[in-house]
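DATA SHEET
Item: assembly model
Revision: 1
Owner: S.N.
Input lines:
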Amino acid sequence: MPNRRFPLPPIDPHLIEIAPEVRDALQRGRPVVALESTIVTHGMPFPENVETAVSVEAVVRDRGAVPATIAVLDGRIRVGLDAATLRRLGQARPVEKASRRDLSAVLAARMPAGTTVSATMLIAHRVGIAVFATGGIGGVHRGAESTFDISADLDELGRTPVAVVCAGAKAILDIPKTLELLETRGVPVIGYRTDDFPAFFARSSGAPVPRRMDRAADIAALIDIQHRLGLEAGILVANPIPVEDALPAAVMERAIREAVAEAETAGIRGKDVTPFLLARLVDITEGRSLQANIALIRDNAGLAADIAGALSDQRRAAA
Ligand code: PSU
Ligand code: MN
């Protein structure tokens, strides 16, 4: 259901194509879950990227919501991609990684692009999608005090009222600093059935989560109040990786230190840092990190569908 408390001019229809199924669900107030596409273009290798995107959409459907993967293709923003288009995006080369600041440039150049959490959130909000599932968000990088490398995802969470379901943040980031910045930006951070902020591959980062909720309906109620208050910030829902898929924290910490050191030696900078680290981790862990990544995003998609369903029910009951 569109969040009518945030009237913004609609995106020029020449620049956006919304799949009929998604448009229909939004008009009827049915649950919709936005999905990002940088995970497809820059977060996983082919063909696992496409297989994962297709299976994540199936999870959302099984849990009663309509999936809306968001990307840029042929000079237009696309909201809702069929399997053939996902396959095309997953093999497109060259392909851009678009955060908020890149959107106009990739549209102007008609470049295919995966949208990051920040770009996906802003598009989701502009078409009226309130809930979004991803794997991990970007955050404050280790060493940010000298590099200033802080993801645009954090600023977007501070300014765009979309709930983002993730498995926390990868320990390639400085998690305590990431949590500090989320507090500064006014972003509610909810631990789903956990007291610890999860660290993507591991169920705990060692940092406490500011608030815990154990039911999707409670999270939906919080989202609804946030909207009714007219607060502009998003909401971060942190859902730990399923127990059976988690990787040992010590093993991952070693792999991450190795990958971060390699990125420094290779002089990787700016938007290339995160894709470089993700790809190195898959190699260093011989694919184990990829399997964990697939499991957690499927789990997040299911929770996001439950939250979107509860939000839709609550609004229907209140109407
Ligand atoms: N973290 C992950 N997997 C990902 C990303 C982050 O564990 O795929 C992607 C998301 O699209 C996120 C983006 O929005 O990387 C952040 O990039 P940067 O760190 O350059 O802001
Ligand atoms: Mn960065």
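QC remark: Residues 149, 151, 271, 273 surround manganese (II) ion (ligand 2) (CB under 6 Å).
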